[in-house]
Amino acid sequence: MTMKSNKIKSILIAATALLIIQGCKKTEPVISAENEVVTTIEKSSGLQTFAATGEHGTYQFIAKENNKSGQIPNFALNNYATAGVGDFSGTAHQKFRLTYMGNNLFKIMNLGSGKVLQSVKYEDTQVLVQNSENGSSSQLWEITPVGNKTYRAINKASGLAITSNGAGVAQLTPYTGRSAQLWGYNRLAPDAYRDDQVVNFFHRTLPSQGSVAFDQGSSIPLPDGRVLWVTEDAYDGSRLTPNGNLKCGFFQYNNSILIQPSKTDWNPDNTPNMTIANSRHNRPRQIVDNQPGTDVSWPGVGIEVNGFVYMHNAEIKFGGATKQSIIKLKVNPPGQNQWEVERTLIKGVSDQTDISWITGMNKPGDGYVYVFGCKGVFFNANNIYVARFAESDPATWTFWNGTAWAATPNSSQAARVGTSQSNVAIGYSKGKYIMMQLDLGYFCDPNPHSIYLSTSSSPTGPFTAPVKVFSIEDRYRGHLNRYYTPMVHPEFDNGKNELLLTYSVNYGAGCAGVSDNACENNEQPSIHYQVKGVRVPYSMIGM
To answer: Where is the signal peptide (predicted)?
Structure first.
């Protein structure tokens, strides 16, 4: 996104003066109980007994040489970042998931980056780095006990052992049994991690891939297993440079939709853009036209009902009025990517601006769709409200007033079902409504900079106290990225009892010397304007 649009969107969201923005602190977050960390191998748990392929556990690695903990230094998220050791402070970059692959071999994933440890050759030397999983033997490790709660870890491909050099670096050297090659493993509670597969799905680097850089990232599952991904201000693949960066300039469309062929297909080549006919702006990949007199249309949360998708849309005039509409899409069969679009106006939604119905659309199976909205009450603090419509009548909404469902919306304190920070989303999974919140991410290096979850058994609340589940560590030019648009995606079940969350990043966030204008040599890196994924064990929120 360019400097101009960055500032416009940031001002809109941070000020909460306009409604219908990317998210709606009044409820103070509760930090989850700290895991049982230790400072010596003698106090460590040792490895659990792994029996079946795919079994996994979360661990702190402890170097016998100096009791330092294994880590990926500097919160690195890139491939080929080197491993190291340091004093344990509890960050995700100092925690690892061991997954048993059979025959005493393990895959070792760093929770902070979602990448796995690998032995790679660099200038005739094998180096210990992190990399995206590729299934090679250089990413497999034989972990063997050697006594007194110590273990050795030897790479299957290179035959070299993970070794601490005493100066903060983890190396690979021939195994001799010296103390620098011995490690303790201390088991920690299940913890959230960055989902590298999802991050790479959104890191679209080919001109043929349509929308390649954008924010938002709402998902709408379809009955046949496909998933629609809704984007806002998007760059087209025609704007990519040969190295996968973006040419400087404005994005090509204010919104778009990607059609993922299945919930398990994370190959971006297989996920095309939806298109429309007769685009008002001659932008067939912009699914929702901008209305006359407005600057943008920003669609967001949506739901499929009886062969149609219903999606909230914000129609915004910068510095002026905002209107809410509901976009209706007729679901096409697979392979037919040009869809029919209809703009509809809903009583109680489109004729008011008091509540922004942007926080979530959920279909729990009781015959209704529950739509959550928010209203700013002061800086970075919102009240949350809920409306619903019958699956048999999507055009007629009713609104919770604190005691009953009424024909008109009510933004009184009595009608609210919860409170939140400004960046909020609500999904539904396993019989619970799940609220996701982010610390405000529009200013220089905010602290904290975390993700929180809370739950409710009813759409009308109450929600539990927010629990911190993950810290956002995306960085741009040495500072935290601007981050926003939390989203909950319960449809992506990976078989590990984990919930998928996403958020967007958007270049700099106002630090001195870090301009919103991200151009260097007429390029800007696309990874700093894309959607990022996090997996959270349901056990972290009592589910």
So the answer is: none
Q: Mean pLDDT across the stretch 439-460?
A: 97
Please tell me the predicted confidence (pLDDT) of residue 30.
Answer: 41
Say whether pLDDT at 14 is over 80.
no
The pLDDT value recorded for residue 21 is 41
pLDDT at 515: 67
Give the whole-angstrom CA distance, residue 77 versus residue 131: 9
In sequence order, what DSSP letters do the residues of 8-34 get, joined into one string?
HHHHHHHH--SSSSS----SPPBPPPP
User: Which residue has 């850089």 as its token pair?
Assistant: 213
In this prediction, residue 520 carries a pLDDT of 85
Name residues whose C-beta falls within 8 Å of residue 202's C-beta, 6 or more positions apart in sequence. Answer: 217, 268, 530, 531, 532, 533
Cα gap 63→230, rounded to integer Å: 45
Average pLDDT over every residue of 276-282: 95
d(C-alpha 167, C-alpha 188), whole Å: 25
Q: Give the phi and the psi of residue 504 in degrees, each rounded to 5.
A: -110, 150
Is the bond preceding residue 448 a cis peptide, omega within 30 degrees? yes
Residue-level length of the chain: 543
Residue from 522, 480, 535 nearest 505 by CA = 480
Look up residue 315 and give its two tokens. Answer: 């129609």
Q: Give me the domains of the chain, ranges plus CATH numbers.
A: 3-30+194-541 (2.115.10.20), 41-188 (2.80.10.50)
